[in-house]
Amino acid sequence: MERTQKNNTNKCGIWYGILFILAGCGLSACNKDFEGKRDFAKTKDTVLEVRTSKILYIIIDGARGKSIETSLAPNLTKIKANANYAYESVSDDSGLDATTWTDMLTGVNKAKHGVTTADFAGKQLTNYPMFFKRIKDNLTFRTAAFCASARLSQNLVSNADVNQSFNDDDLAVKAATVDELKRDDAAVVLTEFNSVDKAGAQYGYDNSVAQYQSAILKIDGYIGEIMAQLKSRKNYANENWLVIIASNQGGAYPINPADNDGTLFSRPLLNSYVMFYNPAFNTSVYEKPNTSAIPYNGNYIKLNGTALRGTLSAADASIFNFGTGATAPEYTVELKLKVHAFGTLNAPIFSKSSSPANSSTGWWIIHNGSNGTWRFAGLSATTITSASAPLLTVGKWYTIGFKIYNESAKRWVVLYQDGEKISNPVDITTRNVDNAVPLIAGQIDGYGNTATQSITDIRLFKAAVPDNIIKEYACQVNVPTTHPYYSSLIGYWPATDGVGVSFKDKISGTRNFAIGGSPVWESFEDADAKFCIPFSPEIYGRLPRGVDIPRYIYSWLRIKTDNYGLDGKVWLPVYNITQ
């Protein structure tokens, strides 16, 4: 649905734009989906609208997001009623304005654009140009930039029909922007103010500092005038303006030690602000993630019945044939399990058997009715239960599994739950239950009742992972390459793919579980004290950032971005469905 034609008139109105953004956003690459998306397909008159998508992009240097939030600036507060916004975004960790500006105008990080010094030396803007260039390549739009900072204007702005800088005079920047918006052909307007940053540098970057707050309120007044002019355009009703208001970064300022969580969220210098406004948007704030208890999040499938289950073909499942004898290879199998509803009988969880009825070859992990215990059988002559482990409860995650190891000229199997050994070793030296049947995640044909459950983070090591390592990594939700036994990992299925009809194997790339039926991927975000998820810089991307803005602009203008190498993330607008 992306297009690159020189004519940007949208004969299907905003509805076509929404479809474009959805089409341009891979499900696993987008932020979590929101309720409240507007369905223009049900609105007859919008289908006949002729509206031209346009851009107004305002940068406020040095405006701390938290200070914007507490300033109660009247115009920004009014705009917020139809905006998707974040007060706790994080800019580049260098805290360098040249870098953050370049992020905001190119849509790529410094590793690509090369701007890491104040003089812009090393900039790589040929391959990663300022966003005006991409617009000019695709559309016959007028582009205009009005900057308080000559450094930004001279080093970053390109392909502009108008490019003016005003020697740190924000009043002149505002006047030039207002004049530009009086033009019928105004289409893409970039405005940069820097007086807030200068006030912060001189007096302090916090709303408790009168001069800093005054500077924010003055710019808020300028924004009010700009928005008034925008809405007074004679063709405004036939235009579809996306207004972006964002700061490049905040400014250094002491914070209460109790508010310091040890992450970049606690650095006022990096605390930026991002707002996307359109009259059709619903107010929606992007909240800072909880950094003290990082949740397990992603997408899973609720397995249920023989149709909705994961199947690893018999040929691919041969790696789960464990052989026999005291010199056979050692193995460790682990998976995460979340039960949504127990069945009334013994619902299978994970098995390689034609029927887990204690008489078939193979092995199986199965629920003991609905009492919260589980058992393992087949590989051992007798059933091993989890009776000594905490009971499984609905809605909670557990890591369960088993280890096969050789010791004292014998072969043994032992069970684990949440990293703890929960059974005595059982001798399986003479047992051979290898077979040529598939491996099933979920229900097996013709046996027992079905539970509704999600299975993720499936790990198969061709090694007897030591108990201390099992315990250390059971609380993690993936297998990092730093895992001491990573080289022994012969199968790994996170099962949080989010798209498609399979659980993909990250090791072979081909041994994938096929999901039957009509699988629906559901997003989840579960915090639990048992998780020890390492902090990852990915968490900063859970809020919109400056580097995301060019991609948002291209999506709004329906410009194809496949070959741009962008680092920015696509964010789905949250629409007001009542309009």
Tags for this model:
single chain, Alkaline Phosphatase, subunit A, nine-stranded mixed sheet, 13 helices, 20% helix, 2 domains, disordered N terminus, 579 residues, Jelly Rolls, eight-stranded antiparallel sheet, alpha+beta
Task: Tell me what you see in this structure.
This is DUF4983 domain-containing protein. The chain crosses the membrane at residues 12-29. The protein is an alpha+beta fold and 579 residues long. It folds into two domains: 9-291 and 540-556, Alkaline Phosphatase, subunit A, CATH 3.40.720.10; 300-526, Sandwich (Jelly Rolls). Helices cover 20% and strands 25% of the residues. It is built from 13 helices and 26 strands. The chain has helices spanning 13-23, 44-47, 65-71, 74-80, 97-106, 110-113, 131-138, 150-155, 170-181, 195-203, 210-231, 467-474, 549-556, and strands at residues 9-10, 51-60, 83-90, 142-147, 162-165, 186-193, 239-246, 271-277, 284-285, 296-301, 310-312, 331-341, 348-353, 362-367, 374-377, 384-385, 397-407, 410-417, 420-421, 426-427, 439-441, 452-461, 489-493, 502-503, 513-515, 521-526. The strands form four sheets. Strands 1, 2, 3, 4, 5, 6, 7, 8 and 9 form a nine-stranded mixed beta sheet that branches. Strands 16-15-14-13-21-11-25-24 form an eight-stranded antiparallel beta sheet, with no helix packed on it. Strands 12, 17, 18, 19, 20, 22 and 23 form a seven-stranded antiparallel beta sheet that branches. Strand 14 and strand 15 form a beta hairpin. Helix 9 (170-181) packs parallel to helix 11 and helix 10 packs antiparallel against helix 11 (210-231). The longest helix has 22 residues, at 210-231. The two termini are 25 Å apart.
